[in-house]
């Protein structure tokens, strides 16, 4: 509703601007045209007078002055009638043309205003979703803490061990809040990367470091990680690419079945560095693939907290990082072939 009003306001000012411009130029055109026409008629009239004087042959009892006077009067009347007719027709034509132009301006102005405000509308909708989802995610641990502390306060028979358990649970929820706030900060940071600070970096070394860091996590599920990496240097923000690979590997480990294999490849394809990570686990439904990179989006499977302790911001951070490096990220998934996340960034 707000944007609709804004579109009407923008269109209104478009029309006002065009109407004022038309009024000025139409007025100038109108008076210039009349002035030029009047001068042209005067020149034509003088030529007629000169020709009349040269060829006039007054009849008996009439002098040349009387004939010129009658002819002059007739010409003046014709001139005035011609100018009035020109004035009237020119005014009608200019007004009609201005009305048509204003109507066309109003139509295209509304269309252009809609196009111009479309990104703003999308941003506002995303902001609303963000506020709603963030409020929900913040409310859940706060509600849990409040309930546990209220129960503990009412129960006068709590033992030291039970009080310690309540405190431990509260600290766990606080840690979840801290992790969520950290995710918010990371999202904001990676959405505002400055390309001027990018440096030539070895992608294969980043991947090797991330895999080494996550070795214990993968080993806890008896998952092996196989790598096929080409030596590739690319101009990028090292910290953000490290975060990107970490997010994708962390997701691959979380959702992979136990006793399976994760495959990572890094290669040059045309003028791009292409990273792929493949695992076997719960596949992503086709209906969810287009939404998987949206902030706070979690599939029904990932809402099981025994599987995932995240908030659905990791992949949105990954997408923001890739976008800021002018690259692409996408996913393919099926029950038979497993899931593959791919990103490519220009060399």
UniProtKB/TrEMBL annotation:
Q: Which residues form the Histidine kinase domain?
A: 133-347
Q: What is the lineage of its organism?
A: Bacteria, Katanobacteria
Q: What is its EC number?
A: 2.7.13.3
- Organism of origin is candidate division WWE3 bacterium
Q: What class of enzyme is it?
A: transferase
Which protein, by its recorded name, is this? histidine kinase
Q: Does the keyword Kinase apply?
A: yes
Q: Which reaction does it catalyse?
A: ATP + protein L-histidine = ADP + protein N-phospho-L-histidine
* GO-annotated biological processes: cellular response to phosphate starvation
Give the residue spans that cross the bilayer.
12-37, 90-113
InterPro entries from the UniProt entry: BphY/WalK/GraS-like (IPR050351), HATPase_C_sf (IPR036890), HATPase_dom (IPR003594), His_kinase_dom (IPR005467), HisK_dim/P_dom (IPR003661), HisK_dim/P_sf (IPR036097), Sig_transdc_His_kin-like_C (IPR004358)
* UniProt entry keywords in alphabetical sequence: Kinase, Membrane, Phosphoprotein, Transferase, Transmembrane, Transmembrane helix, Two-component regulatory system
Asked if Membrane is a keyword of the record, the answer is yes
Query: Could you cite one Gene Ontology molecular function of this protein?
Result: phosphorelay sensor kinase activity
Q: Name one GO cellular component term.
A: plasma membrane
One Pfam family named in its UniProt record: HATPase_c
